[in-house]
Amino acid sequence: MPLLQIASTKAPGSGLPVVLIDSTAVAPGELPSESLILDAVSWLPQTDHIVIFFASGAPKTPNMPWLLKSYRLLSREAKKRIQRVFMVHERWWVKTFTSLLGNVVSPKFQRKLVHIPNLSELAKHIDITVLNISPAVYLYDHSVQEIISVPKHIEPVFGLSIDHPRGNMVYDHCIRYLHSVEPREFLDDSFKSTKGSPLSQILIQAVARGQMLNLQDYGPRVVISLVKYYWLELRRPILSRGLLADHAENHQRALRELPSTNHAALAKCVDWLHQLHRSGFETQLIVTEILPFLTQNLDSEPEFHELQFLHVLIEDWPRISQPDLANQALPSLPPRPITPPPRNSSWTRSRSLSPQRGKALQELPLPNANRVLRPKTSLANIRGPKIAEIVKTYEERLDDMGY
């Protein structure tokens, strides 16, 4: 964030331009040089304006000679154009300095100074939601107060239906940002929980009150935490556990039966996750961290078929998302080592085929000769252009054998 910027809003009531000066933009322990101060002064509006000075980055101890020199760099005309100065998060010595040096700082200029302890207090004077405030300022304010309050009605963003435009706008903005981030910038812990992280709480609160912000200032890990919070707060989950359980062996059917809005939201996410997968990011790590938020299930471990569904979706997304291949079955992952299935399961019955029936099944011209039939899998679940012909051939051969 720059040291000085002109806000895109005007001061309420007066309509004057608002200038933001952020002391956190200066490296700790360093003081802006004379040339930097003169350059900042040159950017000040040539008309009357208001200054908001975020002082949390100022040194803990004052440097009186530097303060006097900086004040004298402001011309008389520049001081006259400044109508109000909001000193936010000021150090103890700032107020002392302005009161003790009355012969240097004119009484008229002193009356323009307004001492503000936190951002909630600043919101009583100016609409802070239209100010681009840096995360460093928010972090300091978070140490003073946990929640920033603004005196205006705020439309909710979280806890809405998935097709609500306000929530959709936030979600789309986050996904576009994550798409723009280079895969090498994602670390192994980028998808892990940031619960309790002050920066994550700050970003969620900022979005909830409609705050102007720049996601690049927060980084991918914090933005991912915002996306997961958005999923978790939806009125209904993007992925229904019941739907995935009903079609545990037919992922394509489960995908097709998703509501169109859920399908669209899932597609935006999976398209980005597939890019990470292609760059070498471990798919299993992504799946285990985000699936509980897609299903809104944080209280129990996800089922294997749920993990498998999202795993296959991420790794095979280009083929799945093509309309001409939409009717083909998704590839299946090798089954994990689990306890034997119940004695009366379809898998147990399929292992006890008679020699004649087994031979007829082996001779069928299946679309993929390498396909392995999974538990509870039937020919009716295999999608392909020749399914009718395959089923008819199969039934005829069984009829000839007397089955």
Automatic annotation (TrEMBL):
Q: Which residues form the CRAL-TRIO domain?
A: 16-142
Entry's SUPFAM superfamilies? CRAL/TRIO domain, GTPase activation domain, GAP
Region (Disordered) residue spans? 325-367
- Listed Polar residues bias regions: 344-355
One Pfam entry name? CRAL_TRIO_2
- The residue ranges flagged as biased composition, category Pro residues, are 332-343
- Mind telling me which InterPro entries this protein's record contains? CRAL-TRIO_dom, CRAL-TRIO_dom_sf, Rho_GTPase_activation_prot
Entry protein name: Protein ECM25
This protein's species is: Wickerhamiella sorbophila
